[in-house]
Design brief:
The protein is of the alpha/beta class. The protein has four domains: about 200 residues, 3-Layer(aba) Sandwich (Rossmann fold), CATH 3.40.50.2300; about 170 residues, 3-Layer(aba) Sandwich (Rossmann fold), CATH 3.40.50; about 50 residues, no CATH class; about 250 residues, Up-down Bundle (Rhopdopsin 7-helix transmembrane proteins), CATH 1.20.1070. Helices cover about 45% and strands about 15% of the residues. It contains 23 helices and 24 strands. The strands form seven sheets. Strands 7-6-8-9-10-13-14-15 form an eight-stranded mixed beta sheet, with helices on both faces. Strands 2-1-3-4-5 form a five-stranded parallel beta sheet, with helices on both faces. It is rod-shaped.
Length: about 800
Amino acid sequence: MICVQPPVSLELQQPPLGQRVMVWLAAARSIFKNYQLVLALAFAIEEVNKNSDLLHNLTLGFDVYDVQFSGWTMYKNPFIWLFGKYNIPNYSCMRDNRFIAVLTGPLGMTSDQIGTLLGLYRFPQLTFGSFVHALSDHHKFPALYQMAPKDTSIATAIVSLLLHFSWSWVGLLNLQDENDLWVLAELKEEMAKNRVCVAYELVISNKSISYIGKAMAGYNEANKSSNVLIIHGNNDSLIILIMGIEQLLIKGKVCIMNAHWEFTLKRRYFMLGSLHVPLIFSHHHADVSGFTDFIKAANPSKYPEDIFLARMWFHFFNCSDAESDCVTWDNCPHDASLDWLPGHVFDMNMSGHSYNIYNAVYAVAQALHEKFLHQVEVQTMENRKGTVPFHAQLLHVLRNIQFYNPVGEQVILDEKRKLEPEYDIMNIWNFPEGLQLEVKIGKFSPYAFHGNQLSLSEDMLEWAIGSTETPHSVCSESCGSGFRKSPQEGKAACCFDCIPCPKNEIANDTDMGQCVRCADHQYANTKRNQCLRRDASFLAFGDPLGIALACMALCFSVFTAAVLGMFVKHQDTAIVKANNRTLSYILLISLIFCFLCSLLFIGRPNTATCILQQITFGVLFTVAVSTVLAKTVTVVLAFKATSPGRMMRWLLVSGAPNLIIPICTLIQVTLCGLWLGTSPPFVDTDAHSEHGHIIILCNKGSLTAFYCVLGYLGSLALASFTVAFLARNLPDTFNEAKFLTFSMLVFCSVWVTFLPVYHSAKGKVMVAVEAFSILASGAGLLGCIFVPKCYILLMQNRNTLHGFRDKSHSRIN
């Protein structure tokens, strides 16, 4: 606050007054730091008085009063000023004076206490300190207006800075001040929205020295948790706190401070050699031209009535006589100026509070100007009985005042219509130690597009001495691609473990909460951060396994055709006739197609091949196995027909066993028809059997129907095996029951083995197992039944009844 030592009325030299209008300023006790506020007030009033477009017949002046923070003394000067030294409030009219407005600040306590009194008399009060939420209550303070902008964007600005540096684990240090509660609430909400966690919060009372003990109690938690500390609260209280506990709490930390740290305190503190990195948000305002020159020109000779300025000259420039303590200006350096003083003693740049005073003076001047433009009656200024006091009329004008100040920025007193403030981000350069240079390193503008609101020059930022790297402040390091976050039980959301993504799932960004499963036609790479397209895979003719199976199928088909040709060529021989050549032809033809049907399992599947695979396999093998059953029954009937019994002879002569083939086949066709009618096979894909491949194969559709077809085929094979096994010991050389028994044994063994192997196989191997089982079972039938006969056919001397008889006689002899 503006400081005058001790309570005194200050009056800078003013130009001749036509009608004098004065601005009263309430100030608080300090030494030198707030004198810039007095000079800012004088500068603004002189600038207004020189402006020919404002207040044509009036000039402004001011008095500075000190406010002491103890009981009656706080109200003493305001009472004297309002009512006169010996008048009693509410019992006498206000003394005749020309004061029309009051400027109070910068502490909210000053504005609050004095505002209660001024509000009773509707006396315009403009505060130039930081925006205080409680002072915006116009029911309690009907005559008070705050010049400072409301910090509606400070929470967004701070969180934007945290996100820029990826600081997600921060501490909070604030005072138990009701004015700051709404800012902290917004800050916490904005942090939670952007997944920034509060590592710890130190809420300290500023009413007693006990807050230092409370702060020290949080020492362990503060130093182990976070490298970033957000400090928000009253300036004077916090500066004492920080200077007292810096070694414990904030040594080496990045401290983000709110916009209201007083420039002189700030500089004096950092001159001592701060041990942390400060990033300070201050309200942005345009440079006021002429202000620095005005300060340089200010000296006791120019303002002889300003005893405070004289005290500064006496204190800093050694103006006393060597033989006495009298101040003689002749002993002062003639070119002495306030810009000679160190920056931590007096700052030449206009502070935020000084800029608010500058705008407050112009607001009063604009209101006066507008009032006189509307030809207000002059007698109201004379405070005649029965008229409304001039200051109350001025208050009405101030409510709606809106103008552009000389630097081009808009000034609005109505809180609801005020624009959101922009912020400058300041960094203190203290290297080499004692430099105390305040440098603007960035800016936050709420009016920019989202994502471009914060602009920083990181190369200008001075981190801790000896460090060039940006500090880290996270509870857990970010989970890279290929990992997902797993929250740690009982801890904040920013504390987590990194878990690798499961198979075929990816995380292609940092700190992903869940892994994303790749589509069926894609697969996850080894790093689990990208889905790659699967290559289509199937049992192709070009694969080694496909080539082997195709060659086997063709070779067996050709060999079976050769056997058929041999049987046709030797159809009149005894061996062919004795084994029922018609059934042999049917069996050989069905085996040819059985071998060829395995080719349907090779190549890219489609709907037609998927249906033909199972139906053709089921029907052809039913024909083959039922033919074997018919041959077995024929053998049994042939030997039974030699003994008496017309029925057996009739069955053999009529060819009844041959009916087994169409009947059994018709049953299988019926089962296949039901299969196709309910749930036919279809083209399917398998994305799990081979890494990086999507296997195209045929889905059986109804597994029940598939196993019914396979089971029926197995039952036929078992029946054939049983009948052949029972007839294996029947006499005669032409008995082929033994060969039929072995063929069915091989057939059944192949398909019994097929079932577990088929279920354990995956992908195209499963298709190969089925195709191989078809070839193996067909080869078993062909080899066990026809290879012995081919051997006999090739041995011409044994392919006759005489040759067999000679063999029989030789065995008897």
